[in-house]
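Need a sequence for this fold. Nothing fancy.
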C-alpha cells in the first residue's frame, strides 16, 4: 500500500487553476458571450472589461460575426512587481455563426460598463414569410 501525504494547498491550487485559467487558456474563448434571438434577429452580449470602444473591431458577413481587439498590459510603476496576473492581455479574435444571414448595415453595438451589446437584425431575405393558402 502506497501512502501519500495529503497536501491541501496543492489541491486548492489545482482547483484555482481549473476555475481561473492562465492567460494562455483564457483567450481561447475570449470574450465570453451570451446569444439569444427570435425570428427577427439576435442579441449578443460579450464581456470586455477594461477595453475601450476604439479597441474593438466588429464585422458581420453572411451568418458570421467576428470580434477583434486587444487589451494592453497594465503598466507597473518603477519598483513594483506583479504577484498574481490572472487578467489576460494581448490580442483576441472570436468568430460566431448565427442561424441566419445578418443585415450588416443595421447592426448596432454599444459598450457599457465593460459589456458589449450587439443587436444583429436578420436580413430581410432571410426572414420567415407567411404564405397564404388559397382554396382550389
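Here you go.
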Amino acid at each position: 500500500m502506497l501512502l501519500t501525504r495529503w497536501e491541501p494547498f496543492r489541491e486548492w491550487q489545482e482547483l484555482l487553476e481549473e476555475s481561473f485559467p492562465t492567460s494562455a487558456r483564457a483567450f481561447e474563448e475570449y470574450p465570453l458571450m451570451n446569444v439569444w434571438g427570435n425570428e427577427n434577429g439576435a442579441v449578443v452580449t460579450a464581456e470586455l472589461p477594461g477595453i475601450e470602444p476604439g479597441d474593438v473591431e466588429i464585422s458581420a458577413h453572411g451568418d458570421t460575426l467576428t470580434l477583434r481587439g486587444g487589451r494592453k498590459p497594465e503598466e507597473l510603476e518603477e519598483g513594483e512587481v506583479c504577484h498574481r496576473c490572472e487578467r489576460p492581455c494581448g490580442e483576441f479574435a472570436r468568430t460566431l455563426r448565427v442561424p441566419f444571414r445578418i443585415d450588416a448595415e443595421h447592426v448596432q453595438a454599444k459598450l457599457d460598463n465593460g459589456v458589449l451589446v450587439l443587436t444583429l437584425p436578420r436580413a430581410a431575405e432571410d426572414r420567415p414569410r407567411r404564405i397564404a393558402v388559397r382554396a382550389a
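For context: The longest strand covers residues 64-71.
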